[in-house]
Amino acid sequence: MTLNLHLWLIPILPLIGAAINGFLGKRFSRQAVVAVAWTFSAAAFAMAVWAVSQFLSVGSAPYTEVLAHWIRAGGFQADFAFYLDQLSVVMLLVVTGVGFLIHLYSAGYMWEEGGFYRFFCYLNLFMFFMLTLVLANNYLVMFIGWEGVGLASYLLIGFWFTKDSAASAGKKAFIVNRIGDFGFLIALFLLIKHFGSLNFVQLSTSIAPMGVETAGTGLLTSIGLLLMVGAAGKSAQIPLYVWLPDAMEGPTPVSALIHAATMVTAGVYMVSRSHFIFERAPSAMMFVAIIGTLTALFAATIGIVQTDIKKVLAYSTVSQLGYMFMACGVGAFSAGIFHLMTHAFFKGLLFLAAGSVIHAVGGEQDMRQMGGLRSKIPVTFWTMTAATFAIAGIPPLAGFFSKDEILWRAYSSPYGSWIYWLIGVVTAFITSFYMFRLWFMTFFGQYRGTAESGGAHGRDSHGHDAHGGHGHGGIHESPKVMLIPLVILAILSVCGGLVGIHNRFENFLAPVFESAHPAAAESAPPSPSEIQHTTQPSSEEEKGTETLLMGISILAALAGLILAWLLYYSRPHLPQRIANALGGLYTAVLNKYYVDEFYAAVFVKPLIAGSTKILWHGIDQGVIDATIDNSAEGAREISDSVRHMQSGNLRSYAGWIAAGAALVICYMVWLGIR
Amino acid sequence: MSLHLVLFISFGAVCVAGAINLLVQRHPINSALSLVVVMGSLAGEYLLLGAEFVAVVQVIVYAGAIMVLFVFTIMLLNAGEEEQTHGSRVALLIGVPGMVLGSVLVTWVLFSHSGTGSVAAGALPGPPKTLGRLLFHDFLLPFEVTSILILIAIMGAVVLAARPRRIQKREG
Amino acid sequence: MNPMSQSIPQAIDYIRILPEIVLSLFGILIMLLDPVLDEDSGPRTLGIVALIGSLGALFATVYQAQFPGLGFWNMVQVDSFSVFFHFLVAAVTAVVILSSFEYMKVNDIHAGEYYGLLLFGAVGMSLMSSAVELVLIFIALEISSISTYILAGFRRNSATSSESSVKYFLLGSFATAFFLYGVAMMFGATQSTNIETIATVLRSEQPPLLAYVGVAMMFVGLGFKIAAAPFHVWTPDVYEGAPAPIVGFMSTAPKAAVFAVLLRVMYEIHAPGRIWLIWVVAALSMTLGNIAALVQDNIKRLLAYSSIAHAGYLLVAFAAMPDNGIPAVMFYTASYAAMNVGAFAVISHFAGSGERYVTLEDYSGLGRRSPLLAATLTIFLLSLIGIPATGGFFAKFYVFSAALQANLTGLVIIGVLNSAVAAYYYLRIIVFMYMREPHSDAPIAPVSPGLGLALTISLVATIYLGVLPGRVLDYASRSVAELLQ
Amino acid sequence: MVPLSYYLILSGILFACGVTGFLIKRNIITIFMSIELMLNGVNLSFVAFAAQWHALQGQVFVFFVMVVAAAEAAVGLAIIISVFRTRETLNVDRVDLLKL
Amino acid sequence: MSELNNSILTVVTFIPLAGAILLLILPRRDRDTRIIALITSLAAFFASLHLPVHLRRSLPGFQFEINNPWISRPNIHYHLGADGISAWLVVLTTFLTPLCVLISWKSIQERVKEFFILLLVLETALIGVFVALDLFLFYFFWEATLIPMALLIGMYGHGRKVYAAVKFFLYTMIASMFMLAAILWLYAKTGSFDFTVIQSAIRSGQVENFAAAAPWLFLGFFLAFAVKVPLFPFHTWLPDAHVEAPTAGSVLLAGVLLKMGTYGMLRFNLGLFPDQSRSNAWWIMILALIGIIYGALVALVQPNMKKLIAYSSISHLGFVVLGIFSFIPMGVDGATFVMLAHGIATGGLFMLAGILYERRHTYQISEFGGLATPMPAYASFFLFMVLASVGLPLLNGFVGEFLVLSGAFQARPIYGILAATGVIWSACYLLWMYQRVFFGKVTHSVNETLPDLSVREKTALWPAAAIALLMGVAPGIWLNAIDPAVQYALAPFTQLVSKLVMR
């Protein structure tokens, strides 16, 4: 192809920024650090925009770019190669765009922090890996990004490493991700074993002729399942979601960027990237859908009772990701990606706004210590409001379109079923409930906290030493540099959904998911993309049901709003009563169903104990070394007994000699007469 | 029962008796004397075999010189009755049985498989002349080498028997 | 009985015993000089004379090598086999004399007889390797044995020395009697004491039972001299009690000579049924020696046990078929001589007056106190272990490969396992020297030039045999070819 | 006419006695004597074989054996004296400083 | 050029020895000693770079060969040669040694001369092992590595150094005895020690009753190598040796010595006994698996930093063995790559551990905590090395492990899957250790004032880090040399497969 997009520059630019800040940042002034970080992330964004525009201008045919050879061994080959199609376009823009905004925001948010340069170094590093992930043209390069973003999140979660909880959270995130990667790796091995390549294009072409595995098992199914394991790890799905809530130990911009907008969605991206596998593995799809649905509901329920503002958002993220997987699971990849995008907007915004709130109240994160902030920090309040309505799915905001799309697909798609839809709606209700709960608790009613103490509070809450030192008493609006991104994102989450009207977004992505139909389609259930086309000019009753369902979901959202208003605005004393009434259930939910405790008891503790007692002390020292030492001891004893042959007595010696002589003579005589 | 056999048996009997006496006697002097007896009677056996020269040397060197040396040493160290210590079980439990086994075998071999016939008295034609020729011609080298052996013996005796030099110094 | 016409020995006959003549002349010279020299300078002079004597013997051997053949009416035979052992014995004697200089001074031992006995002993050993007549072999054996009996008792003031001497003497004579009886039976079985004749007789027809017993008895006698189990019992005690340089001497030179005899007796006369006899004895020696050495704390005693084990390795080669076995044996004796003499030279230096420091404890921290000495000893020990690049390795190597070619796999396995076990106790010494802190930092006396030379020689020999073993082995195999043709 | 094997048996007996003496006697000198006894036994068999084969080397051998025995005696007794000097005993069971 | 090609291996091998001899004769002046040692090792390194540079990737088999008769009987040849595999292993050795010299610059204060002599002798022996093509020569160098290493541990170690040294020596010594026996057998039957000669003799079936002996010979070699690697039941010498050894010792031990075992398996077990290797692969791979998981789990609970790294080595070397015995080109390539990568990463880790030991004289993890605050540069280096050995993509650990695992998976899927859990374990134990040492608040007041890395230490660490990154980003540099060699080595197996297919 003639046009050259220099895609490789897009990831490399942030990497350069990271390198500069990493090696030299220590000596830089904060301004310089910020300058570097901004420049390179902005450059990446600009580059991305340019590339996309080029890409679209030439008729948006998939574009591949081989940078260099990477691994070539024993017939296997994986290169540093990048790939651009509609799917990666979406991701690219989201990542670079949101990423850049958050760079802006962080400059303000982290200004007072120690290790300022470190933070931006990590942030740029993350951008590099995330972009590599998005732009990869084969699974292995994708895996680079995949692991890399894990590393970045490890570093950023543990940014305040002097705090043990932060350090452990980072470690937990990395290890849980590793468990997912394990599945991912196995999937890759299967691909290599059977197709000898990891290149998306080659794979899709070589898989294209294969039929749908109706039997429910088979190569593609297992690959799909394993990929889903990987995705579950990265995107915090059941059972591997546990790391995400802890990840909130990191600075809020990090939560916004990595744990809401971009990294956690990598799983969704990967699954839809592998659609050509899933489309041929219905049971894998079902698995994805079920996982997604359950996660959505499960996390949402936990979200209800969380009091830490960021924890609420974290669980909501988990549940939203569940939505996306539900979408992928029912074959509505484009819907999933759509929600991914909108979610990136409003959830990013939510986190940033929450950060702004925390910043305002001096590091306080507990909603019970907030309230009545509406007037004090208006910009934050309004942006937050937009985001809240968006996520709750109140039309015409972004969340409404994407969520509704997913629910409709879940109901209508041949892979779907009304159960998914039902759970989806319930989740939607819960979502809007806890989101408005957050909204009310934070911005309405009386201010329950003390800003001054908040400053002090901030110190140990996390390393917000600055806020103490900042010297400002009372609650204050965040600086411009933080508000601008809020506003931009607010706009996006208000009208970002409009791109989805009349399936525009779908049709944009269609070439990607059309690319490979299952062979023998008639024997198999028709592929989602086909559905989409058949449903393009949807017949009347189809239309009817769609609108009906839409109405129901809107009602659910409103119901959530009302309930939240009831409980947390008009009658604030009710929730406690309900909690008491529910009793055990409530505490169970409050403690996140004791999942962490369960894991600790079932996996971690036995592992440690077993390795210590059985393996190390038992086998290593008890068996192996003991055998060695004992045999040595035995040898010494034998030796001691042997040397007693040397009694020192002449006559004994003569005795030995005589006996020996006798034996020799016997032998020889026997030999002679034989 | 020829005279030869009679003489053989009588000498042999004395010889064995002496040997056994050597073993049973507790005092070294007695053992020494019984050893002299053994050697003397052996000289007799040699004569019976017609090895006059050997017989004579046996008497002179062995019974004479060597045994005198022994007796002299015993006297010098005035060794008394040997005390009955039980230093070694091995010698009795392993050595003696081994010895018995071995000697039985050897005796059996010598008796039945020695491939020897029987000889008349003085059968061996060993005039000293031929013997001397053998000794000074064919076996000249060993003969000369023995001189070195004796030299060593002298030196050894001097070195070991002489009192340690330190003590001498202290005295002188 | 003698084909030779002439009735008096010719010059050529004397050439065939030239080394022995040189040695004995110098021995006598020493005895003559001893009284006239004064107390202080005397020992040194005598030592130098003795050294010259042994070197003379060395050159005599080299010269003699040009005139192979029988001498003194089939008494001695000069062939490259005998030359090899002559050379070895003379060299060992020279090195031991060198290493004795300072030992004599430190322990004030009366030099005259000491050197004289060394030289005379060397005469016996040389004769053993060249004698082809049991009478001569017997006398030579006695010469070497008696001189070593005396030398063992040379530390006059110590009870242990005289004890070792008496033990060695009594047991030695005991064994000699066996050997003699064996000879008698051989004579009875073959009417001759000449090895050639015996060989012809034994080759001709099925050997009589008497010959078997004769071989057995002779083997007992010789086995005692080479300290092969179960006739090894004397070794540790004697080595522990005897003066260190002498131990170096008698653990190598007489052994080598006796091995020469054993070779002649076992191979040249085609002694019946040797293989399995030696198989068992070899296995026994290796195992007993190594196992007993594991817990020894007295370094001399430890090396005594190790020498038993080494006798075992040598016998392994014996059990192998001649054309590969004998060269292996010869090489082994050579390299063993090199490393063992060296090791004992170091020990004799370190032992100090009255041999006070001979336990492993005394060796702790030697690596700090005198690094060079420790390094030297380490190399000898590594050679004894059989680490590559040392003579000891190739020695073991040839032995085992010879045994493998003779399909004595079992024996080889035993041997390999043994050398693995052996590594432990040699290593213990190294560990003590380098990895323990010194107890006393009593300064170690500087090495005298004589000893230094001795150490250098044996070190060079060990390394040379380890790096370029080819020439020696070629020589050995050529001589064997002669021996067996 | 006497079968030579009788002589050989006699020599064997002497040798055996010698060995026994070495094994059971305590006094070093006596032990040394038993060695002499063994040697005598050997000598006898030499002579006997010599008589059998009419070969004089047998006798020559005996001659050498005697010389050696003499030398040994000289050295041996000297050694014994030195032992006695250091240990004040002639009992082998007490001469066991060197052991194990 | 060509004569340089012939002599280069000799040069590389004996430069360090020459340096050692130079040190030996020079008077003991510590500073000069160190400098000379450094110069020598650097010289060796640059000389060794000739190998990969001028290695003809296209040619199969050995290059830079030199083959002179050394000893006539037995006909031992001074036969050196290198292929893609050994060339890089040599470079690894020569690369690590200068770093060892730097890292022990200060930590070794007494008996300095001996230390560096031993180090250089060890280097020569190690190089020799990798380039020797004459079985005898190989065994010679193999044993020659033993003594200097044991002495390094025993003389300059700490704690139960004697126990560790003796254990190390005896384990390897006894095991290698069996190899010697096997070599002797081969010599007795083929009359040659030359690897290629014996190989061809075996392949053409000229060795009589080889079939009967082959299993035992295979085991003889394998045992020696397995102890060196170390594989699961024979591994207990390693932790002790590592904990007590001086830093340089640990670096070379983990970095190179262990690779001798895997290299031996690759070169000799596969090269000489393909059929045996194939038939024994199953249990060997199981041992390797046990090594991977077991080592990781035990590492997880080690209270001692160095012991932890030691056990992690056991786990990593398990990967290597797994890859080798998968007989899949990918797997074997990966195995070789892991050898190199592990050499760098673990070597680096040991250097870092040693640096800490210099400051605090303990390896106990509980003694530390929050070190990232006082010594950030150190912390970042440590993190980098940890990530490298965790196997993060773009760092050297990943490439090898990925290839090995996929190779193993292609050979035996279950094994591949089980082995892949190692990916999780390594993250667990290393990150946990990292957290306990560097994160949190400084618990022991002593640690608050620990000095950060000095310039010398940085100069020792930077190359390692740089190479670790380079190996991750551009593994082709290594693989394109390794791959042909591996293909060549695996030729009999592919033939075997094709035969099976034909039947």
Describe the protein's architecture and organization.
The complex is a heteropentamer of chains A (674), B (172), C (485), D (100) and E (503). Chain B is built from 7 helices and 1 strand. Chain B has helices spanning 3-24, 28-49, 52-76, 89-113, 128-138, 140-161, 165-171, and one strand spanning 118-119. Chain C starts with 10 loop residues before the first helix and ends with a helix. Chain C is built from 22 helices and 2 strands. In chain C, strand 1 (69-71) and strand 2 form a beta hairpin. Chain C has a two-stranded antiparallel sheet. Chain D is mainly alpha-helical and 100 residues long. Chain D has helices spanning 4-24, 28-53, 57-87; one strand at residues 2-3. The N and C termini of chain D lie far apart (54 Å). Chain E is mainly alpha-helical. Helix content of chain E is 77%, strand content 3%. Chain E is built from 19 helices and 2 strands. The longest helix of chain E has 32 residues, at 329-360. The radius of gyration of chain E is 22 Å and the shape is globular. Chain E starts with a helix and ends with a helix. Strand 1 (118-119) of chain B pairs antiparallel with strand 1 of chain D, so a sheet runs across the interface.
Helix/strand order of chain C? HHHEEHHHHHHHHHHHHHHHHHHH
Mean pLDDT of chain C: 88
SSE pattern of chain D, N- to C-terminal = EHHH
Question: Which geometry of chain C do the CA atoms define?
Answer: globular
Mean pLDDT of chain D: 89
Quick tags:
heteropentamer; A: 674 residues; mainly alpha; 28 helices; 73% helix; D: 100 residues
Q: How would you summarize the topology of this molecule?
A:
The complex is a heteropentamer of chains A (674), B (172), C (485), D (100) and E (503).
Chain A: H1 9-24, H2 30-57, E1 63-73, E2 76-84, H3 86-109, H4 116-135, H5 139-157, H6 164-195, H7 200-207, H8 219-234, H9 243-246, H10 252-261, H11 266-273, H12 275-278, H13 282-305, H14 309-329, H15 333-360, H16 378-392, H17 398-412, H18 418-443, H19 451-461, H20 465-470, H21 480-495, H22 504-514, H23 528-535, H24 540-570, H25 574-582, H26 584-590, H27 595-643, H28 650-673
Antiparallel strand pairs in A: 1-2
Chain C: H1 11-16, H2 18-36, H3 41-64, E1 69-71, E2 76-78, H4 80-106, H5 111-130, H6 134-152, H7 159-190, H8 195-204, H9 209-225, H10 234-241, H11 244-250, H12 253-268, H13 275-293, H14 299-319, H15 322-351, H16 360-363, H17 366-369, H18 371-385, H19 391-405, H20 409-435, H21 449-467, H22 470-484
Antiparallel strand pairs in C: 1-2
Helix pairs in contact in C: 2-3, 2-5, 3-4, 3-5, 4-5, 4-11, 4-12, 4-15, 4-21, 5-6, 5-12, 6-7, 7-9, 7-10, 9-12, 10-14, 11-15, 12-15, 13-14, 13-20, 14-15, 14-19, 14-20, 15-18, 15-19, 15-21, 15-22, 18-20, 18-21, 19-20, 19-21
Chain D: E1 2-3, H1 4-24, H2 28-53, H3 57-87
Helix pairs in contact in D: 1-2, 2-3
